[in-house]
TrEMBL record:
This is Adaptin N terminal region-domain-containing protein. Residues 260-285, 617-636, 684-803 are annotated as: Disordered. Gene3D superfamilies: Leucine-rich Repeat Variant (1.25.10.10). Keywords: Membrane, Protein transport, Transport. Belongs to the adaptor complexes large subunit family. One of its GO terms (cellular component) is AP-3 adaptor complex.
Length: 803
């Protein structure tokens, strides 16, 4: 028993010693890291940090650094410990050094002077055996914004640009952009380093390298000639955000350097071709890619698997690239390939991503509605969607309306007007008005629907229905309306005027007064009403109501009441009652609190001088008012005749062009500037297709010649569906089999190797499918493994060259 007790005590002591760093003590503590985030004791621990960092015991220094990092993660200001922390950058403990570099990376830009004291240590760490230390030391060096040491930083970049580890080269790419921001004159020295990174065979460095290219020399696209096919080959295996940057850059390159394919742009495909399914035998023919630059076909083919990515930004970026580059009606790389992935993303993503996807879809529908013409039902609203998504779908739905789906469109919009959200209901009313203006078949049913909405108990719907009716009446000439009751424009305006008392929305009331003035003229002899010649019988009562409640109306309504009175005076100037009514109205407006109303009153009163003068001349023989004549004569200026005043006030605006151009934007599809209708910082339009494409031989280089040439190719596009765990096989070891591409492309791309069919787009499958994390439990071992696999690949390539 005694021996057993001693053995148990020894095992317990060894266990305590070996697990001290991770604090898996036998005291029952479940989480040792939680003590660093304990708010009750964190203030006391922070006071001891300086003492711990000055200690000679490595364990105490590690404890102090852990407290600092924990404080940083909680948002505390830990910059006051910078001088104490920087002294430990030369520690022999790898754990302490990692935490010190994490701290320095956070505060290096604001404490460059103190960092200069340890610059020798940073230079020494550039040769450290750990790739993480090499990477962190270079990041700290490039973060020191002091022009004096840029020569040392440049030496460090040149030293590590060909590092065996891709993670270190990725840090070098980020450092190039930092150096250029500090010293733009170093461009000539940075470009060779950038070219060396572009030739890297690891997809891990692609995103950072292209990002550095956009910072350093975004307009020198000719530098990408030797690396274009190489980038296309690595695109499918790059990290997700690197893929987004690559797609944007390659889109600009293709539009600037490659030949425009037949059918690219907003030209819809022939009806027979778009309705007929592609024949597999036709795909094998040599004419499948006729009229398409082979390098452009390669880009579209290599980027097509990115539609399967789980990152919404990658899917949107791929769709936008196909929108700008792909021809229409092509079986494998046509613009039609973007439809299904976009609709899938919009229907399955989270609210923010779904809204962005629907915004992009709406922009594409505005420019090329034929792409989504067969997916009309996909734009129907669902109650579970957010109001922003519903509004975006309604806008696209109104653009897709045609003679074949107009009945379903009106039926759906009628239901959407009953939605509890006022914004969605108003957008549905606007969609009905747009459908009436664009489709002849929707006029009768749509107008009846809008007139029924005038009786709705919801003020927002009534107001929007009035505004929609105003747009419809102005957009369509009177000759296109039926003469039946309810569809004639003058009768519609009369019905609106009849329900004026029930309309409370200011903008809607202003629209009614404006419409009454526009359709007040009548050539028939007045038999009913007040008997005003030249004016419809229902107009005087509308004017009376406006004058009676003039002081209680809003500013926009007052302006339209004044305009209505001026229009009626121009039509019927000889009526005494109208003159008295208008005189009273102008007197009220003269002393109104709004200066806009006062200005409008003075303007209209002066505009009607010619009308008044004409009436006085007709009554000159019977009676004259010399004082009033003198008052008008003293004003000076041009006096318009009655016909000219009618032309000024009653001229009907032409809104046909506005309706045809509704929804168009000057900004590119997929840009944030188009979504918010304002140019943002960093916005760059996609260049137009070049008229002088470059020769394809410029894109041939030694970067691709050292890759094995596949013996045969399949005749179908790649469909990568394998788990992301196979990514390790791609980066090192034996070369995987190539992705199948169309057979006729193999002759032109004999030196180009595609990615593996077993590899999948970065992020296209859940992360838990990968088994790589079970093998490596230490970051250094993981980074070293990347270096070893690349070394093995280089050895294999050298052995093949020797043969």
């Amino acid at each position: 028993m005694a021996a057993l007790s001693r053995l148990q005590a020894r095992i317990k002591e060894n266990f305590h010693e070996t697990t001290r760093d991770i604090s898996l003590l036998t005291t029952g503590s479940t989480s040792s890291s939680a003590k660093y985030f304990d708010t009750a004791t964190s203030d006391e621990k922070i006071k001891e940090i300086s003492k711990l960092l000055d200690s000679r015991i490595e364990q105490e220094k590690l404890e102090g650094m852990k407290r600092i990092i924990a404080g940083m993660s909680k948002g505390r200001d830990m910059e006051s410990f910078f001088a104490v922390v920087v002294k430990n950058v030369g520690s022999t403990s790898i754990e302490i050094k990692k935490l010190v570099y994490i701290y320095l990376l956070r505060f290096a830009s604001t404490n460059s002077d103190l960092l200069l004291l340890s610059i020798n240590t940073f230079q020494k760490d550039l040769s450290d055996s750990s790739p993480l230390i090499r990477s962190m030391s270079l990041r700290v060096l490039t973060s020191i914004r002091v022009p004096v040491i840029q020569g040392i930083v440049m030496l460090g970049l040149k030293k590590l640009v060909n590092d065996r580890n891709p993670w270190v080269r990725k840090t070098v790419a980020g450092g190039l952009a930092k150096v250029y921001s500090i010293d733009p004159s170093s461009l000539n020295q940075l470009i060779p380093l950038l070219q060396s990174l572009l030739s890297s065979h690891s997809p891990l460095t692609l995103g950072a390298t292209l990002n550095a290219f956009l910072v350093i020399c975004p307009d020198q696209l000719d530098l990408l000639h030797p690396y274009y096919r190489h980038i296309c080959r690595l695109l499918v295996d790059a990290d997700e955000w690197g893929q987004v940057v690559a797609l944007q850059l390659l889109t600009r390159y293709a539009r600037t350097m490659l030949e425009k394919p037949e059918g690219a742009g907003s030209t819809p495909p022939p009806r027979a071709q778009s309705s007929t399914k592609a024949d597999p035998k036709q795909d094998e023919s040599d004419d499948e890619f006729a009229g398409i630059d082979l390098d452009l076909a390669m880009l579209l083919h290599c980027s097509k698997p990115l539609f399967q990515s789980r990152n919404p930004a990658v899917v949107l970026g791929t769709a936008i690239m196909y929108y700008h580059l792909a021809p229409s009606g092509h079986a494998s790389i046509g613009q039609e390939n973007l439809v299904s992935p976009l609709l899938k993303l919009a229907s399955t993503a989270e609210d923010e991503s779904a809204l962005m996807a629907w915004q992009v879809i709406g922009a594409i529908v505005e420019e090329r509605p034929w792409l989504f013409a067969d997916r009309f039902s996909s734009f129907f609203l669902h109650s579970s969607e957010s109001s922003q998504v519903q509004i975006a779908k309604l806008k696209a739905l109104a653009t897709l309306v045609s003679a074949t789906n107009v009945k379903a469109f009106l039926r759906e919009c009628k239901q959407y007007t009953r939605f509890p959200n006022d914004q969605v209901a108003e957008e549905a009313v606007r969609a009905i008005g747009h459908g009436i203006q664009t489709q002849q078949e929707a006029k009768t049913a749509g107008l009846n629907l809008l007139m029924k909405l005038l009786k709705s108990p919801r003020d927002a719907l009534v107001a929007q229905a009035v505004i929609a009716l105003k747009s419809v009446i102005l957009a369509l000439p009177a000759s296109t309306f039926s003469t039946e009751t309810g569809t004639n424009p003058r009768r519609l305006v009369a019905r609106l005027a009849k329900g004026l008392d029930a309309i409370t929305h200011a903008r809607a009331r202003a629209s009614v007064f404006w419409l009454v003035g526009q359709f007040a003229a009548s050539e028939e002899t007045a038999e009913g009403g007040l008997g005003w010649d030249g004016v419809a019988p229902w107009v005087p009562d509308v004017l009376r109501k406006g004058v009676k409640g003039f002081t209680e109306e809003s500013e926009i309504v007052k302006l339209q009441i004044l305009t209505l009175a001026a229009k009626v005076l121009a039509l019927c100037p000889s009526t005494a009652k109208l003159q008295l009514l208008s005189q009273y109205l102008f007197m009220l407006a003269r002393y109104d609190a709004s200066y806009d109303v006062r200005d409008r009153s003075r303007f209209l009163h002066a505009l009607l001088r010619g009308v008044r003068a004409e009436q006085k001349s007709l009554k000159a023989e019977s009676s004259t008012d010399e004082s009033e004549e003198d008052e008008d004569d003293d004003l000076g200026g041009v006096i318009l005749r009655r016909e000219q005043v009618r032309l000024v006030l009653l001229d009907r605006p032409n809104t046909a062009k506005e309706v045809s151009a509704a929804g168009t934007s000057e900004y590119e599809v997929g840009s944030m500037s188009r979504i918010i209708h304002k140019k943002l910082s960093g916005y760059e339009p996609v260049p137009e297709w070049t008229d002088d494409p470059t020769d394809y031989s410029l894109r041939e280089s030694q970067v691709e010649h050292n890759k094995p040439v596949p013996s045969s190719f399949a005749n179908h596009p790649p469909t990568p569906v394998q788990p992301a765990a196979n990514h390790k096989e791609v980066s090192g070891g034996a070369q995987p089999p190539p992705v199948p591409i169309p057979q006729h492309l193999s002759s032109s791309f004999a030196s180009i190797t595609r990615s593996s069919t077993n590899s999948s787009p970065s992020g296209s499958l859940p992360m838990h499918t990968s088994t790589r994390g079970a093998k490596f439990k230490d970051l250094d071992k993981f980074l070293d493994s990347e270096s070893e696999t690349e070394e093995d690949e280089d050895e294999d390539n050298d052995s093949e060259d020797d043969r």
